[in-house]
Request: fold
Amino acid sequence: MREIKNRRAEKTQSFMGNVAIILFAQLAVKVLGLVYRVVLTNINGFGDAGNGFYTAGFQVYTVLLAISSVGIPNAIAKMVSERAALNDYKGAHNIFKSAFLLFALIGAFCALLLYVGADFVSTYIIGNSEIRYVMRALAPSIFFVCVSSVIRGYFQGLSDMNATSRSQILEQVFKSGLTILFVVLTVGVMPLIMELISRGFLLADTLYYTEAVGGKEVTNTLPEIMAAWANLASSAATLISFAYLVMFYMRKKSGLAEKMRRSAVETLNESTGHIMKSVLMLSIPISLASIVTAVNRVIDTATITRGIEIAFANGIPAYEGNAAIPHPTLKELSDYAIVLAGRLSKSDTIINMPLALNVAFSTVLVPSIAGALAKGDKKEAAGKISYSFLISILLILPCVAGLIVLADPIYKLLYPAASLGADLLALMAVSLIFSALFQTMSGALQGMGKVFSPAVGLIVGCIIKLTLNLILIRQTAINIYGAAISSIICQFAAFVICYAILSKHLTIGITFKKYILKPLISSVVMGTCAYLSYAAVYALLKSNMIAVLTAIIVAVAVYALMIFKLRILNEEEIRMLPAGGKLYRMLVKLKFYPEK
Reply:
């Protein structure tokens, strides 16, 4: 009996170790992403307009990316982990080779489609032709993300998360550095090489505009061109990440060959075409949830532009130093819609930080649960799901509370040159709860083979969001806030549907007191202390930065105290954490838990 318990503990620690690797990588990626978006927003000429162009083009790109690559890592990880669980490493490698060829072709096709179709999509779907430059800049990255995803999925299936974590961090490091470099080079007098690329690759005919500043004519780079160069850096970074993954695979090749020679079972004799079909049949439904999510964002982009045009047809209020426009033209309305969309995208950038903490569970759950169920161990699968669900709640709720009470100070700290829109952040933070829990449940359902279930939940949510966007954004008093409200209801609907499906097929033992009430009390207490500490420090020192940092430190300390004071986690659950044994012994010494 003790030996069985030890084996289960080792499996759980290995599971949490993989979670920790992905969690660190995701956190690093999002921190770097936040840094470069903050720098971009504060560059003269970029601001909310640049953010609007950047985000609008990127959202169209994510649709094709979701179609071509998003489901690949989880689909391949599931198939590979099932073969690895049966010690069939040769079969796992056959899956990898066939998938690589398949998605290289799909990636090349989608990249070409985005580049060639940029004019049509930007003009007739989004309603702003300048967004085409951003789409063309992003087109090459689809191919590199596709083939990179195959390699990541293969190693995830073998329970090696280093390929994913290291390549993601490397990609984001180069993306952050190159993005800032490229945009800075477009400001003022653009070097000849930058102009030639813009006119040749982006097919841009106009790169600059002039305005009167202090009685002088000043030439500035168009924000859409700056946004395009920011995304061209993304394409360069994905190429670098792919090159690293190829080297990672080559280093592991000899070890993989040795495992294939030692395979204890006979490999299933499947043709390349049959394997490709199997990968597609699994990756398409897994991708479907991501496709719907991407389409959801395009719905935002399209409905915001048209909704704002209706909401402010009789006059645009003064904003960011611009005078009110009593009878705006269609171009002026379109520009204002881009500005408001840019404010919303600033909130998305911040909100993605907490979601990065949670995405590790959905990533690791897929191969872990698939492997457990392949061996018929439902208890292990249910245990990992319920534990992941609990940790997701404990991670996300304090983030939501902190973003709500500190939204305005955070915006002033991060976006001093474009600090409007903090109330959007406070509102959008509510959707974080349901987005995070949906992420965790998606990983669980996909690992269980219920690959269509997350998509079903999101499709229902997407329909609700489209309906609400069309109604709410057109109301002058609501305008851009309608997109935030509809996002909350969309994510809630998807969460409810997926939770119902998950509960029907597996008993995961979620109780109200442990999973909801105690974490909620802890988060409310933490949020209150964060707000009071910020107000006190700011009143004394008049420094927003010091007050925000102090509030965050106080919030972390108070929340940790509440978690252990209320004993939300029991001894076994604490020991499951990386370095959990040391943490538990320290908590015993501090009298949070009794000595045994």
Notes: Residues 330-374 form the longest helix (45 residues). The mean pLDDT is 80. Residues 2-263+271-318+326-510 form one domain.
